[in-house]
Structure formats: C-alpha cells, structure tokens
Design a protein that fits this description.
The protein is α/β, with parallel strands linked by helices and 262 residues long. It has 8 helices and 12 strands. The structure holds manganese (II) ion (MN).
Length: 262
C-alpha cells in the first residue's frame, strides 16, 4: 500500500526537513535499504549471503554503513525473534560493527531497542537525516498509510497473511502489485522535491536510480533524486549506493554511485 496525494507529500517532506537530524556522513559510506529481514529462512536467503560478502569487503576498505529503512520486517516478525534467529547472526554481527545511521521505514516502525544494545553508542536511529541540502529518508513520507492507521493495519494483516500462505507453500512468489503503487508515490515524491529544490535519497520503492535535475536555464544541475533500490531481491542480488562526501559534484552535494551485486 503506497497511495499518496501530491500536496500531502510536499507538506510531509517540508515537515521532515525541519525535523531531520543534521549528520555529516564519513567520506566512505555505503547506503543500503529494504533488507526486510525476518525470523525464518525466507525467499531472500540468497541475497543475505550476497549482502554479508559485500559488507565484509566494504568493511575491510574502511566504509561505514547507513541503512535506509525496512531493515527488519516487523510486519512479519518481532524485533526480538529477528535478533535471536540463529541464521541471522552472521549478518547482524557485521551490521553491528559498521552501522552508524539507521533510518526507520514503514515495515520497521520500531525504536530498535534491542539492536541498539549491540551497536556503537553513537548510532543514530531516526526517521530522517539531513546532510547539507540532502534529505535522507526511507521514502514512505506523505503516503496515505501515514495518516490513516487502519489502511496501514490492513496492509500489515494482508502481508502477514500472504507471507504465512507463502511459507506454507500455497504459492511460490509473493504478488508484486504494491510495486506499481509505490512507483506512483515515487512520482509525487520527485515532484515535491523538485518544488522544494532539495536532494533526496530514499529507498522504499525497490527501484534503484540516480536522476539529476537541471536548473531551469539548463546550464547546471540543480538537485538529484537517488533511490538505493533493494537489498533483498528474490534472485539473490542486492543494490548498494556509495556515498562520497569529499567529492562534491554540484550544489554542495556528495558524489553518489549505484552498484548491483549478485
Ligand atoms: Mn518501505
């Protein structure tokens, strides 16, 4: 469920910009989102192995990690069960050692009380952060489910039910209808950020991209929209966004690069 109305999105982004915690990210930072980690071995198991392998490599090169929401899927399992699941330990241990910012999404509206105990004291858990002119948030900002809680509850129960049926073997693949609605929300999001002239990095839609918008005179770039994509594709691949704060490209914004690993 990701229905949204243009003006609500714009209003919500404005509000988020005011509330967002100011953070200056280290020069070597990677951003991932939408791992949707659960307590049982899920259809995403293959990508978890890819994620562990790549995180280990990035860690060796001195990178820090920002998770952009929906790290846990609380719609399906509790924080305690996810943290305690044996097969999640390897991934969680590397996350604990690299994580500096944890943004909450619509599938993990929790304060990550248990996870925080294992991470650095300096870990920032927030709905949004702001670096210069860049808003970094999960991407569900301004969706109708943010305003109408019963709509959100319907989504949760629908996902829980579908996930249970899926585990019981009633169907092989979960339906992906929500993706198209997410894309529509994404257009509203981009329209809002264009009006506000800010850079925006988010996840949520599972559609990786970096789009640069030119100034009205067409001579320079005004702002960008970047989506981290997803770290839990069924085929085992993951998306990672590399963020380099020292290489400014325009509008005082950091350089971004998008990678897909299999
Ligand atoms: Mn989401």
């Amino acid at each position: 469920m990701a229905i949204s109305i243009k003006f609500l999105v714009k209003r919500a982004i404005k509000k988020e910009l005011k509330k967002a915690i100011k953070v200056s990210l280290p020069n070597k930072t990677i951003i991932i989102s939408d791992v949707h980690l659960v307590a049982h071995i899920s259809r995403y198991h293959k990508c978890i192995n890819t994620l562990i392998r790549e995180l280990e490599r990035y860690k060796q090169e001195g990178y820090k990690l920002v998770i952009l929401g929906d790290f846990f899927d609380i719609w399906i399992a509790s924080e305690k069960n996810i943290i305690n699941a044996k097969h999640n330990q390897k991934l969680l241990n590397i996350i604990y050692s690299m994580l500096i910012v944890l943004i909450t999404g619509n599938h993990d509206r929790i304060k990550y009380k248990i996870l925080k105990k294992y991470c650095s004291d300096k870990l920032i858990v927030a709905k949004s952060i702001k670096c210069n002119n860049t808003l970094i948030t999960h991407g569900n900002v301004g969706e109708l489910t943010e305003y109408i809680s019963w709509l959100n509850n319907i989504s949760i129960y629908a996902v829980r039910g579908l996930s249970w049926l899926h585990r019981k073997g009633f169907f092989r693949e979960l339906p992906r209808a929500a993706n198209d609605v997410s894309k529509k929300h994404c257009y509203n999001l981009q329209a809002a950020q264009e009006a506000l002239s800010i850079n925006l990095i988010c996840g949520h839609t599972h559609n990786p991209r970096i789009e640069y918008k030119e100034c009205q005179n067409g001579h320079s770039i005004d702002h960008y929209y970047a989506n981290t994509g997803c770290s839990s594709y069924v085929n085992g691949s993951i998306d990672i966004l590399e963020y380099c704060s020292s290489k400014k490209n325009f509008n005082n914004a950091p350089c971004l690069q998008r990678f897909k690993y299999c």
